[in-house]
Hints:
By secondary structure, the chain is an all-alpha fold. Helices cover 44% and strands 2% of the residues. The protein has 3 domains: 7-154, no CATH class; 177-307, Cytochrome c-like domain (Cytochrome Bc1 Complex, Chain D, domain 2, Orthogonal Bundle); 316-476, Cytochrome Bc1 Complex, Chain D, domain 2 (Orthogonal Bundle), CATH 1.10.760.10.
Amino acid sequence: MKRFFTFKNLSITLLLLVAGLCVVYFITLTPPAPSKELGENQRVAALLEQGGCMSCHSRDAERPFYAEFPVIGKVVVADIEEGYRAFDIEPLCNALAEGAMPNPVDVAKVEKVIADGSMPAAKYYLMHWGSQSTSAKAEIVEAWATDFRTKYYNDGLVGARAAEPVRPIAEAEGIDERKVELGYKLYHDTRLSVDNTVSCATCHILSAGGVDNHIYSHGVEERMGGVNAPTVYNAVYNFVQFWDGRVKTLAEQAAGPPLNPVEMASTSFDEIIAKLSEDAEFVAEFIAVYPDGITEANITNAIEEFERTLVTPNSQFDKWLRGDDTALTAEELHGYDLFKQYSCATCHVGPNLGGMSYELMGLRRHYFEARGTELTEEDNGRYKQTQEERDRHRFKVPGLRNVELTWPYYHDGTRSTLEEAVADMARYQSDVDITEEETAAIVSFLRTLTGEYKGEKLTNPNEYGVALEADYDHYNH
Length: 477
């Protein structure tokens, strides 16, 4: 008589039974999407709680009991540390609870990982059934993100483009033209430097994309700085100034270089004021705008007012955002899609495509080890100001407007071409080795971000790479 219940058949039956029970377990323990009766913020907060986001992405994350287990415990602890290193979700959760406006970067990050199902990671939701992303959850977050951007930016985008994480540049408004004119003169005035040779415009050349295209800028007596000078265009959109975020306002930023011993090297603003006060015509012009005369606060306020006008609207990409379907080519649109696909648009968001958060340089792969050169004080980034280990190598995200003109790239100026910068950002920040075709498409998109200043499209007359070559020669000797 034939044997139907062999050991092999029994094993298969048991495996199927276990699999079936797991499916039932999974279905029964997967909570439904939060009720529509809740407000949008409350629904998203509930989703983040279901997803266990605070378990890894917060300073004082509560470790699960299995973090004490041999072998697996080390993996769990490492994942928690890596999660917090990558993203602190507490500010977003607090904003949702208080009904406050969250940071657009936090919104973009959550939207991206929920949409593509990359968070929570599989090894988390295998231990926490029901925490995984679903299409229903993604729809809730997508609607919330769209509503948030419509309210936060209030820039008139409609239809599908109202949901875009990148926004158009607006024309400067509410400007005091008298202060702007005075600020323009001060911006170009070399008397702010100790030897009357360097002005703001020396390192931030308006006719060259707002930069000088040097790896590090040259101050008085050709003294060399230690960090690449960012563009002054659209700096008004930055939530803080400088790579390490040591000041918040443009006025505070304007007060730094004149007293910096490498840049302008003046000993005090009293010294600067004394020199300016010798110019009777300038004094009269200054008092006409500021009745209390030439002071540090008035000097920096005038420069700030001028720099508020340094916005570059009307790029090809802005025209597309505002509804002109002919403004971008198929390759440029493909580049923008890749820009979002590879998570670039989770940090490079808003009107300036950046300047709204601090992020870790080398998030997914170790940038500084690969660079292979000695670390500098400037490589510490935000850590210089906070002395918190989590902030080491964390920098204010640079804006990408007019980026085709602002080479070399990164805080250390080590990437001379846009193609190099794009490929390396994908590698070190997103852990993706993109193809040459993908790189070319993203670069094509980035070139559409070049805008207009005073009605003329920005250009850069500097010969590409010449300044870099001179800098390398200087450093090598």
